[in-house]
Amino acid sequence: MSNPTHTLQKKIVVFASGSGTNAENIIKFFQKQPNASVVAVFSNKRSAKVLKRAHDLNVKALHFDRDALYNSYDVLHILEDINPDLIVLAGFMWIFPEDILKRFPNKIVNIHPALLPKYGGKGMYGMHVHEAIIQNKEKESGISIHYVNENYDEGEIIFQAKTDISEEDTPESLAEKIHKLEYKHFPEILQQLLQKKSQ
Ligand code: GAR
């Protein structure tokens, strides 16, 4: 017999380029929620640890290259088949192509490890962000969850959270503080977005 709650489940797809600790955290969070689940993880890097994390958690793990994302529409077509309710960029380092943005309006969100609009844009990702912030002796940093548009880190901001920076902080300790904020808030915000969509 079919499970009625299962058929109502919302579908989340995650894109990530590297380690994927956020992707893992999001997968585990939704494995405990009845209304949604992560159905696939995509990575542009074949060796990215995120693909193993997804596989180990029984989530479909897919690798694609530049051509499949930007020229052949292969990634777009797979996404159309899945028809996700949310596409989540969690440490994804390539610009998202316009055809996918147009096909899934208001469904693509990114997390950035700083308080946008500060420390965003091309080249500002991962440890580069934390290094610049420590070098400039900023007193605070944080996370920004935002909709994705055709420019790096410029879509409408959905949520921000802050953390203080002390004089002892290093890029590594700041990265740790930022990851903690990401783990705490990112899945919750995704859940809120999905619930808003159902209203
Ligand atoms: C996260 O801190 C995320 O905010 C950042 O990459 C890290 C990925 O960590 N994203 C960007 O810099 C995007 N511009 P993870 O692979 O452990 O989840």
From TrEMBL:
GO biological process: 'de novo' IMP biosynthetic process
Pfam families, per database record: Formyl_trans_N
CDD domains registered for this protein in UniProt: FMT_core_GART (cd08645)
TM helices/strands, residue ranges: none
InterPro entries tied to this protein: Formyl_transf_N, Formyl_transf_N_sf, GART, GART_AS
Gene3D superfamilies assigned to the protein according to its UniProt record, in alphabetical order: Formyl transferase, N-terminal domain
UniProt keyword terms in alphabetical order: Purine biosynthesis, Transferase
Residues binding N(1)-(5-phospho-beta-D-ribosyl)glycinamide: 20-22
Pathway: Purine metabolism; IMP biosynthesis via de novo pathway; N(2)-formyl-N(1)-(5-phospho-D-ribosyl)glycinamide from N(1)-(5-phospho-D-ribosyl)glycinamide (10-formyl THF route): step 1/1
Reactions mediated catalytically: N(1)-(5-phospho-beta-D-ribosyl)glycinamide + (6R)-10-formyltetrahydrofolate = N(2)-formyl-N(1)-(5-phospho-beta-D-ribosyl)glycinamide + (6S)-5,6,7,8-tetrahydrofolate + H(+)
EC numbers: 2.1.2.2
Site positions per UniProt: Raises pKa of active site His: 153
Gene Ontology CC annotation, any one: cytosol
PROSITE patterns: GART
Catalytic residues of the enzyme: 112
Residues noted as binding (6R)-10-formyltetrahydrofolate in the record, renumbered to the chain: 66, 110
Domain Formyl transferase N-terminal: 10-189
GO MF annotation: an example: phosphoribosylglycinamide formyltransferase activity
EC category name: transferase
Protein purpose: Catalyzes the transfer of a formyl group from 10-formyltetrahydrofolate to 5-phospho-ribosyl-glycinamide (GAR), producing 5-phospho-ribosyl-N-formylglycinamide (FGAR) and tetrahydrofolate.
HAMAP family: PurN
Similarity section: Belongs to the GART family.
The protein's name: Phosphoribosylglycinamide formyltransferase
Organism: Salegentibacter agarivorans
Species lineage: Bacteria, Pseudomonadati, Bacteroidota, Flavobacteriia, Flavobacteriales
